Amino acid sequence: MALASGVRFPARALLRPWSLLRDTTLGRSEPAAGGGGGGDGARLFGSQRVLVEPDAASGVAVMKFRNPPVNSLSLELLTELVISLEKVENDKTFRGVILTSACPRVFSAGLDLTELCGRNPAHYTEYWKAVQELWLRTYLSSLVLVAAINGACPAGGCIIALACDCRVLADNPKYHIGLNETLLGITTPFWLKDTYVNTIGHRASEQALQLGSLFPPSEALQVGLVDQVVPEDQVLSTALSEMARWLAVPDHARQLTKTMMRKATADRLLRQRDADIQNFVSFICRDSIQKSLQVYLEKLRQRKG
Ligand SMILES: CCCCCCCC/C=C\CC(=O)SCCNC(=O)CCNC(=O)[C@H](O)C(C)(C)COP(=O)(O)OP(=O)(O)OC[C@H]1O[C@@H](n2cnc3c(N)ncnc32)[C@H](O)[C@@H]1OP(=O)(O)O
């Protein structure tokens, strides 16, 4: 199976990508039996860190991140997400995916800081390729993607949500969403900045990106970062209602329109992926950047409650 970008997967995944996918939806832990599309979706999806609950009747799969404690985007989680999304996308039974968290109170804490600290350039290269790959796969997905944001959603978590077509956020003042990279001493790459601008406009992005703003639900709604804020116990049902609204539109017309709206942004990255990786690696390897990330991680570890 060739992925668009050449993300390097663990050896067994390269030989047999579906070996990573285990049936978790039926409570079994043995490897999935098959790899083809169609048929009994319930037997085919799911992996250690990505639970997939397929509903073939509605054509919607609920995909849950399960990388406790905070769904940080480790290389493994990124890889499993890309594979799971590709698998659902290749199965013509499905027209939509709801992305949500299986971990309490956190949608995703963003990039796994332990992947960004104290590693070597080869690791950073592999890691950044996987970040690019997940963004491309979600941003350009022909499926309808709805984010059911049932927890805190900073940085990389927000990036996943932004790549979706629609965002529903739980109304809990602790569930902040936004791109806070500057507060870690790092910057947002151009393609993520572009996604932000596409969503909330230039001036709001300029302000929020420089300040590293994390918005509570009411402000996130006001600025246009999310489409709905609802009581926590209604996040999934509202995401399903939103999904029904989007699926009421004929696929081909919706997909062509999505491509028309997103292609220029994605193409900008596709044209310079290698340069973007090199830029990231040389940036992240700087002593000063490593130092600020270490300090940030240490503060996180010390901060409890
Ligand atoms: C050309 C230039 C390119 C530059 C590239 C930049 C790339 C930009 C794109 C994205 C950047 C990122 O995503 S960086 C990650 C930023 N994320 C954050 O700032 C969030 C940090 N986390 C939190 O705020 C909180 O953990 C939480 C609100 C998400 C949850 O709070 P809660 O109280 O429930 O949990 P704890 O804080 O106690 O955390 C539990 C446990 O998890 C560890 N943790 C948290 N976040 C991360 C993370 N992102 N990576 C790794 N580990 C993380 C935390 O340290 C605790 O660990 P211990 O139990 O060991 O103490």
From TrEMBL:
State its Enzyme Commission number(s). 5.3.3.8
Q: What class of enzyme is it?
A: isomerase
Q: Which reaction does it catalyse?
A: (3Z)-decenoyl-CoA = (2E)-decenoyl-CoA; (3Z)-octenoyl-CoA = (2E)-octenoyl-CoA; (3Z)-dodecenoyl-CoA = (2E)-dodecenoyl-CoA; (3Z)-hexenoyl-CoA = (2E)-hexenoyl-CoA
Any one GO MF annotation of this record? delta(3)-delta(2)-enoyl-CoA isomerase activity
Q: Which SUPFAM superfamilies match?
A: ClpP/crotonase
Q: In which pathway does it act?
A: Lipid metabolism; fatty acid beta-oxidation
Q: Does the keyword Acetylation apply?
A: yes
The UniProt entry, under InterPro entries, shows: ClpP/crotonase-like_dom_sf, Enoyl-CoA_hydra/iso
Chief place where the protein resides = mitochondrion
Q: Which UniProt keywords apply?
A: Acetylation, Fatty acid metabolism, Isomerase, Lipid metabolism, Mitochondrion, Transit peptide
Q: Subcellular localization, per the record?
A: Mitochondrion matrix
Q: Where are the transmembrane segments?
A: none
Give the record's family classification.
Belongs to the enoyl-CoA hydratase/isomerase family.
Put simply, this protein is called Enoyl-CoA delta isomerase 1, mitochondrial
